[in-house]
Design a protein that fits this description.
single chain, mainly alpha, Rna Polymerase Sigma Factor, Chain: A, Arc Repressor Mutant, subunit A
């Protein structure tokens, strides 16, 4: 197995989940993830190791997704079937409540919107989220908690 094949097999799932958290569309996430690894293969010589490989790949994914949105002048907003992880995420079982949460999330400011999406839809750990933002794990936990509170307040 080549070095790049090892990178692909090690990080594919993380990049896919991250991309899925951004676009909430499984087939689009798959296409973007494939594009990410294509771009990474072409530019692997530019990776200097100043950040973790996962962070570099997810940054490519984020840029690819936002470039696609910019090019198409819209943001893909098709929710996919989410998995429960915490009590507020459990409310997603009810489709009407899920729609309300997605609407609140759409207007939530950054970094709350992205941290919440990464945690809930991308199923990333707080450690992985903190690495993406270059912050501490505590920062990721607090930001996620604040995002949940803002959404909960809006729902009430």
């Amino acid at each position: 197995m080549t070095e790049f094949e090892e990178i692909y097999s090690q990080y594919f799932e993380d990049v896919y989940k991250y991309t899925l958290s951004l676009c909430r569309n499984a087939s689009l996430a798959d296409e973007i993830t494939q594009e990410v690894f294509f771009k990474a293969l072409k530019n692997i010589d530019k990776f200097k190791g100043k950040c973790k490989m996962r962070v570099w790949l997810c940054q490519i994914a984020k840029n690819t997704y936002f470039s696609l949105c910019q090019k198409n002048k819209y943001i893909i907003d098709k929710p996919y079937e989410e998995k429960e992880s915490e009590y507020i995420e459990g409310k997603l079982i009810n489709k009407e409540t899920a729609w309300e949460i997605h609407k609140r999330l759409h207007f939530l400011g950054e970094p709350y919107k992205e941290v919440f999406s990464l945690r809930v839809f991308g199923e990333l750990s707080f450690l992985q989220i903190s690495e993406l933002f270059g912050k501490t794990e505590s920062w990721a936990r607090v930001t996620f908690h604040r995002a949940k509170l803002k959404i909960k307040e809006d729902l009430e």
